[in-house]
């Protein structure tokens, strides 16, 4: 079987949910690709005050994306930083934790369980699309202690995944990203990117790759990967003299913390199968055109997927797996009280521009 199918698989996995603060819809479609390597998380109740959303775009196999969808939010909520109220530090640590957990016998066994088959020599594993249920977040935390066994020297999979996640707690939005999936917010109809696509040609990425002994060929890391940060891909993370954030490829996420306000309409997280076909502003405009005419937010997402699907595989764009999560803020954010019950001050009603950069041609 080649990279592409003879006809696209247009069946969609869609879901909707809401609480008193947020409403979300999502949809995922395999499209022209021979396998489905995307996964996602959508949890309105990470705790009583916090929602968690994430998209994970796998490459070389799908189990790392599935692993992240299953475990990343658990590692966030079970961290000491999360208990202390530092959500940024909690999600930052969770990205690196994914690589740690996929090593050794326990990691090998879990990856094998998530997939249909495993190549013990390359670490490339195949499986089905994965989406966690809300009850997963309540499971008892497992410390993933080192285990002796036939695969205790397993360094982790050579397939990998992007990760772009958003946590919403009251008026605070925390976005973490590694790779080229993207998070965008609509503020009064204007698209603002809350994440940066990590590509090898970026100066900081190129410098890290070369300092770690890697190279860039035809816009790809060591001639293979067209992105410069990801979870997994352990063959690019084997320099024992460098910390995890300095490796050829790193899971190191950019963290963006935004104060939400009444001008914020909705949030979008999507894999590059969407962004290859539409700019951030084009997607925001499309959503605004259809959001009041569809019966659900997932139906809006489905429209986007159909809009992006290419008529053939000749051009390349529109031929990737596609996953999109649309999160709508249900009521004026300034009416939402902090968890402490204190009223918002009048000065807090203004939008903060500190951490939000307007889209620049992406």
Automatic annotation (TrEMBL):
Its cofactor is Mn(2+); Mg(2+). Residues 352-362 have a biased composition (Basic and acidic residues). It catalyses: O-phospho-L-seryl-[protein] + H2O = L-seryl-[protein] + phosphate; O-phospho-L-threonyl-[protein] + H2O = L-threonyl-[protein] + phosphate. Residues 336-362 are annotated as: Disordered. InterPro entries: PP2C, PP2C_BS, PPM-type-like_dom_sf, PPM-type_phosphatase-like_dom. GO terms for biological process: signal transduction. Keywords: Hydrolase, Magnesium, Manganese, Metal-binding, Protein phosphatase. Its EC number is 3.1.3.16. Residues 336-349 have a biased composition (Polar residues). Residues 23-329 form the PPM-type phosphatase domain. PROSITE patterns: PPM_1, PPM_2. It comes from the Eukaryota. It is an enzyme of class 3 (hydrolase). GO terms for molecular function: metal ion binding; protein serine/threonine phosphatase activity. Signal peptide: none annotated. It holds the Pfam family PP2C. Belongs to the PP2C family. This is protein-serine/threonine phosphatase. It comes from Setaria italica (Foxtail millet). The gene is LOC101773510.
